[in-house]
Amino acid sequence: MEQMISRFAVKGTPVTACRFGEGHINETYLVACDTGLCYILQKINRQVFQRPEELMENIARVTAFLGERSDDRRSAMHLVPACDGCMYAVDEEGEYWRVYEFIPDSVCLQRAEHPQDLYHVGLAFGNFQQLLADFPAAALHESIPDFHNTRVRYAQFRDVLKKDVVGRVGECRKEIEFALAHEQEAGVIVNGLEDGTLPLRVTHNDTKMNNILLDYTTRKPLCVIDLDTVMPGSSLYDYGDSVRFGVSTAAEDERDLTKVHVDMDLYRVFTQGYLDGCGGSLTEAETVLLPMGAKLMTLECGVRFLTDYLNGDHYFRISRETHNLDRCRTQFRLVQEMEERWEEITQMINEVS
Ligand code: ADP
Ligand code: GN1
Ligand code: MG
What is the pTM of this model? Predict the structure, then answer.
């Protein structure tokens, strides 16, 4: 760690480094220097991001674009270049590392502690999309092709199901059945993008609450982080993925499914925040599909967790044997409840929009 951080133009001498955050993908470390300044050092997950140079080009462009549009240094991510001027460094094992300035006096939540927190998360992601409306989308590489193409996610699921490489298919019959029973809806958003009824925008694509930093004191949104998946997509991906994570009454990996419900108050405040953040820019077609966006993103995430479980857990970081299966179950439970409460949800969104 020491050797790696010394390859970047940080101010001061590093004194401590420890694992940080709860992301499922990259390896993140908090490094403190003797100057009192802190940095985020990340090892990029090479299995997930197969073209790290392109990924870093995206991030350099997006952070520069957003940085120019804000006067507060804490409201944009700032990459720290390596001493050779490059935005990343490669170690002897061919692993790619990057450094960001640590954003001080911020809080990163795994759950809303107050409904207002979720309003601010919605506001931040809606605003983010608005800010990127002028970003030259053609300049972005697709960091993970077909990331939210639910049809493709189903094809990957079917492939893994057929191979059953770790012999887990037998223990997941119920979940597999649930996934297959919902396959006919997988194309709704992708079809809309393809036939032009839904607009293609520059979106974040990984809008979990823990990819937002709020100001520690005011609890207002400070900065959108985890920019690895910023690429052309649908607003329904961002809205839906945030609902999936933020409006659940339990953690994504909760084992007791009786604790997993859709919290309608949170759903309402999040929707309000997101729509306020978008500032009226959503089309009628997008607005009508908001409940479907939430359901599809939750379903897709469940299918991805299940696929990874059946494939032997190579994608998402796990800390117990059935972690991905547990995560899949909470997602499917939420999908089921969204279906049961469909009218109530639709009515709530109509009231808010
Ligand atoms: P992953 O892709 O693995 O989710 P993230 O980029 O989201 O990685 O980083 C993981 C965690 O590290 C975040 O959830 C947040 O807690 C923290 N973090 C990342 N960047 C910063 C930053 N610039 N300032 C403060 N905290 C950060
Ligand atoms: C991953 O990196 P993180 O933890 O913010 C994943 C998301 C999933 C999420 C599920 C690049 O997000 O797509 O929705 O886990 N990110 C990537 O918790 O695959
Ligand atoms: Mg993250």
Answer: 0.97
